[in-house]
């Protein structure tokens, strides 16, 4: 299953018949049930990229305080795998991939208040691979502002299930050319 979320209005309009908005549609990647994080999870509040990366794990809710989290400025950017995440080389840098985690929630302080960015134009901002029950909500995500347009998506889901993205936006229309793109028979629809 490959899902790419938060992209251009052309693809987004195929799903919800709206275009030109910087608002991401709420989308559910569903196999059996929508994402629900069970009781007993650890809650972590973070205020910078390093704290965010260190908090990534199964059964965790990560609250991102207001601010900008540029993943390309991480201390280990472009290095080997670090357990629950890795950096994949792309044409103009590295793509951030969260891998093999279940029951993860990433919650911002609101659209425009919490912003997750990445510099490479050929990479997704975040890819979730082999994950189950992931929620991303109340934040803005996209590529940093640079000349030209992006060719990478914003949020991608590969071999992941029961994932929910809601109340998320992107900083500008040029930030990622892909909307919601299901592959391998995945179900993706607005609520």
List the helices and strands and how they pair.
Layout: E1 2-5, H1 9-16, E2 27-30, E3 42-46, H2 49-55, E4 60-64, E5 67-70, E6 85-90, E7 93-99, E8 102-107, E9 114-118, E10 126-129, E11 132-143, E12 155-158, E13 163-169, E14 187-189
Parallel strand pairs: 3-4, 4-8, 5-9, 7-10, 8-11, 9-11, 10-12, 11-13
Antiparallel strand pairs: 1-12, 2-13, 2-14, 6-7
Nearest-angstrom radius of gyration?
15 Å
In one word, what is the shape? globular
Structural class: mainly beta
Summarize the main sheet. Answer: 9 strands, mixed
Count of runs of 4 or more consecutive helical residues: 2
User: Could you state the order of secondary-structure elements as H and E?
Assistant: EHEEHEEEEEEEEEEE
Which spans of ≥5 residues are poorly predicted at pLDDT below 50?
Answer: 1-35, 179-191
Find the count of extended strands (DSSP E, 2+ residues). 14
Task: Please tell me the overall pLDDT.
Answer: 75
Helix proportion of residues, in percent? under 10%
Distance between the termini: 19 Å
Sheet-strand content, in percent, reads 35-45%
